[in-house]
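User: Reviewer 2 asked us to show a designed sequence for the structure in our supplementary figure. I'm pasting the structure tokens here. Could you produce the per-position amino acids so we can include them in the response letter?
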């Protein structure tokens, strides 16, 4: 089982797709470098697969807990505090959110795999850049949805929901832009 002392491993579930998105975006968006096909697929497909595995371990962890102890909370940092009131950057895993996180990460991984199959072969440099952009945006959407699912408080829920909206709008703009 995973170490439940600090429970910071819960942050890996949404953070891995965000990291993959950032690495791909910096690589091809900032430096105008089109990554090799295998590296792009490893980064883009690996993030939701590892998120699924961590989500599955979280599901096993909360499913095996005694009644009343089936909720894991990971506190990251305090957004703000005023007297006794404080809002934490926190994620929560309970049985329902663990199942939803598993399903979301698995579907994202299958979607990435499907897109990799339909976007290949790359015929031009522009095709490779568009494929990299599409896989990057899909990782952004995956991380945003996982943040929304695992939110422990309203502020994190709002942040995840807004990121989901932005990612969905950018993905729609990808096809019509």
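Assistant: Here is a per-position design you can include in the supplement:
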């Amino acid at each position: 089982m995973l170490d439940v002392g600090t429970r910071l491993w819960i942050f890996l579930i949404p953070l891995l797709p965000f990291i993959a998105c950032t690495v791909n975006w910096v690589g091809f968006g900032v430096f105008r470098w089109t990554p090799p096909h295998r590296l792009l697929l490893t980064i883009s497909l690996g993030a939701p697969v590892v998120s699924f595995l961590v989500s599955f371990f979280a599901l096993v962890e909360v499913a095996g807990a005694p009644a009343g102890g089936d909720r894991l909370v990971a506190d990251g940092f305090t957004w703000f505090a005023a007297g006794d009131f404080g809002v934490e950057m926190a994620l929560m895993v309970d049985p329902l959110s663990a199942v939803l996180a598993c399903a979301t990460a698995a579907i994202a991984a299958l979607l990435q795999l499907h897109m990799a199959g339909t976007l290949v072969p790359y015929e031009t440099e522009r095709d490779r850049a568009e494929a990299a952009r599409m896989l990057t945006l899909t990782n952004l959407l995956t991380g945003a949805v996982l943040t929304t699912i695992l939110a422990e408080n309203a502020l994190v829920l709002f942040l995840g929901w807004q990121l989901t909206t932005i990612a969905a709008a950018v993905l729609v703009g990808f096809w019509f832009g």
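For the response letter, you might also mention the following. The beta strands are 72-82, 85-93. The longest strand covers residues 72-82.
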